[in-house]
Structure formats: structure tokens, C-alpha cells
Design a protein that fits this description.
- The protein has 12 helices and 14 strands.
- It is α/β, with parallel strands linked by helices and about 350 residues long.
- It has a 10-stranded mixed beta sheet, sandwiched between helices. A two-stranded antiparallel ribbon has the order 6-7.
- GO terms for molecular function: 3-isopropylmalate dehydrogenase activity; magnesium ion binding; NAD binding.
């Protein structure tokens, strides 16, 4: 099978970690008889430096023409003084909008080999953590109207948080279908005791729940969700929520695993096109030192194979290889434990690729 992948390395550690994911994908292609063709393009701060904008029209078209997109990370202090309309992060919003990437899947899985790295007590993490947050990605306050005006001699700011019934139904169906393929449990996160958007969210989700009688459904307020993720994360299977709540909760959940460097993500459209990236940032303070953890990016590549290319065996092969590397005691600095062998970014990529081959 032939697939075209647009690669957006981005800023900071982005080029280093993406290179390891491509290395692993090449190994998968060789073993399973596929051909992956890569087209590289700039995004974020490096694009601002070279082209004056966070993403060019040509780079955006390259993303549209691909079967999938692999992203590293964008941004850094170097571009903090840029005008708001050309900040590196603007490129991510633009790609999500142009590609119709409305569903963000963020798995939180604690590898048993890394249970000591979790900040939670062993009696909690010992039960295993394996949950998935489904975040609506193209609506809500991030895409609403933002205004700052002067009233009575002081500045006043307003951010509007719009949601339509169709937007909620679209992400809701993704969550229900995903829950069907996992543990059959779905919790819908909102703030229906305060927000009109959340009341519409809850009403729409209740209507959908009638169609998915095989999925155990529940409502949970966002503040309670934040507490329960720390108190008893094993109670959750799939969580679905709107854009801003999902952004915050998925970052909280990522720390349950002990390192944000282990966390992959997928942003999906209504078709097979998706963008895959680790959830961490560009970490410019450790860039070009060969010490970044590439496993979140490598696991994102596995999600690409699973969700966009319908290659479950190949995705399983990557995930199994990561497990074997951890079993063999290899660690990058962020997940280093006593008795283990510390390796760099490139070496970790080599180790995963070797276990696939």
C-alpha cells in the first residue's frame, strides 16, 4: 500500500523527535510491504523566520494533498514578541480549520514499566490507567469572537464560546463509536450548571445516548472530572468534552503517566485525513542535544497507521516494540529510573525500529 505523508517538524525538539518517528515508519513499511512517501514543509516559528507567516499557502496545500500529516511541535520564547495574528500557534488553528480536524483523540496510558514515574500513589496506578479523551477541536471559545474594548476608562475583554447542535453531535458520535471499540463506557464532561453551551451539549449527548444503548453513558461536571482524574483515574474509559475543557483536562491527564513525553495524539476529520503529534511542546531548552523523548511521537505514528491508514497490525507492531524497549530497561532522561540504561533521542528511535525489524 502506498501512502503520502506530509511531515511538519516544526520548532525546538520537533525535528529530532519527528526524525525518529519517520525512522520507525520506514521500518514498518519495509516489514509489511508498504511505501510511505514524505513531503516536508515548514510550520510555526521556523516558517515565520523563513517566510514571514506561521504556515504558507503552499505548505497548507501539501497537508491537504497528503493521506496524513505528522507534526512535531511549534513555538518557543523566540517568537513571543510576534504579533498575535502571526504567532506560531496560529498555524495549528489554521491547519485544524482547513483540514476539518474536529476530533482530537488523546490517550492516557500508563505503561506498567513506568508506574514508579507517576506522581500518584501505587495503590491507585497499580490498577492500571488506560483512558481516552475525545476533545472537540474546531469550536468553542478558541474559535469564537474575541474583543477588547474600553468602557468607563478601563479595558474590558469578551471571549464568546459558541457551539451548534450539529458540532456537538458530530464529536459525540466519534466518542460513542470510540467507546464501543474500547471498554464501552463514555463520560461526557460539561459545566451544565452554569453555561448555556454546556446545557445544549448535555441535551444533545442525551439524545445520542438513546442510539447507543450498548455504551454505558454518564454526565460529569468539568471541575469534578479534574478531581476524579487524580483521585480515581481508573474509573474512566472514554471522556468527551468541548475544546477548552478538553485542552486543560488532557494536559492534566498526561501527567498521570509520569512524563508528557510519552503522550501521542490524533486530530481527525470526517474522512481518513488526520494530523498526528505528541502533546508536548517544542522544549527549546533541550533542543539539538539529543536528549528529548521521541516515544510520544513514535506512538503518534502508530495512531496514524491505526486511524488514517487502517493498518492495525502495523500499529500494534509499533506499540509492542515500545513495550519491549521499556521492558529491556532503556529510558530517556525524563523517564529514567534506577537500574535502567539512559539513552538519547536517536538511540531510542533506533531501539524501537530494531524491535520492529
Amino acid at each position: 500500500m502506498e501512502k503520502k505523508i506530509t511531515v511538519l517538524p516544526g520548532d525546538g525538539i520537533g525535528p529530532e523527535i519527528v526524525a525518529q518517528a519517520v525512522k520507525v515508519l520506514d521500518c514498518v513499511a519495509e516489514k509489511f510491504g508498504h511505501t510511505f512517501t514524505y513531503t516536508y514543509a515548514d510550520i510555526g516559528g521556523c516558517s515565520i523566520d523563513r517566510h514571514g507567516v506561521p504556515i504558507t499557502k503552499e505548505a497548507m496545500q501539501t497537508c491537504k494533498d497528503a493521506d496524513s500529516v505528522l507534526l512535531g511541535a511549534v513555538g518557543g520564547p523566540k517568537w513571543d514578541s510576534c504579533a498575535p495574528e502571526i504567532r506560531p500557534e496560529k498555524a495549528l488553528l489554521a491547519v485544524r480549520k482547513e483540514l476539518g480536524l474536529f476530533a482530537n483523540l488523546r490517550p492516557t496510558k500508563l505503561f506498567p514499566q513506568l508506574s514508579d514515574a507517576s506522581p500518584l500513589k501505587q495503590e491507585i496506578v497499580g490498577q492500571g490507567i488506560d483512558l481516552l479523551i475525545v476533545r472537540e477541536l474546531t469550536g468553542g471559545v478558541y474559535f469564537g469572537e474575541h474583543t477588547t474594548t474600553e468602557k468607563n476608562g478601563e479595558l474590558c475583554a469578551v471571549d464568546i464560546m459558541p457551539y451548534s447542535e450539529s458540532e456537538i453531535e458530530r464529536i459525540g458520535r466519534v466518542a460513542f463509536e470510540t467507546a464501543r471499540k474500547r471498554g464501552g463506557k463514555l463520560a461526557s464532561v460539561d459545566k451544565a450548571n452554569v453555561l448555556d453551551t454546556s446545557r445544549l451539549w448535555r441535551k444533545t449527548m442525551h439524545r445520542l445516548a438513546e442510539e447507543y444503548q450498548d455504551v454505558t453513558y454518564s454526565d460529569i461536571l468539568v471541575d469534578n472530572t479534574a478531581m476524579q482524574l487524580i483521585k480515581n483515574p481508573t474509573q474512566f474509559d472514554v471522556l468527551v468534552t468541548e475544546n477548552m475543557f478538553g485542552d486543560i483536562l488532557s494536559d492534566e491527564a498526561s501527567m498521570l503517566t509520569g512524563s508528557i513525553g510519552m503522550m501521542p495524539s490524533a486530530s481527525l476529520s470526517s474522512g481518513t485525513l488526520g494530523m498526528y503529534e505528541p502533546i508536548h511542546g517544542s522544549a527549546p531548552d533541550i533542543a539539538e542535544q539529543d536528549i528529548a523523548n521521541p516515544l510520544g511521537t513514535i506512538l503518534s505514528a502508530a495512531m496514524m497507521l491505526r486511524y488514517s491508514f487502517d493498518m492495525p497490525k502495523e500499529a500494534d507492531a509499533i506499540e509492542a516494540a515500545v513495550n519491549r524497549v521499556l521492558d529491556d530497561g532503556y529510558r530517556t532522561g525524563d523517564i529514567m529510573q534506577d537500574g535502567c540504561q539512559q539513552v538519547g533521542c536517536s538511540k531510542m528511535g533506533d531501539l524501537v525500529a530494531q524491535r520492529i525489524a
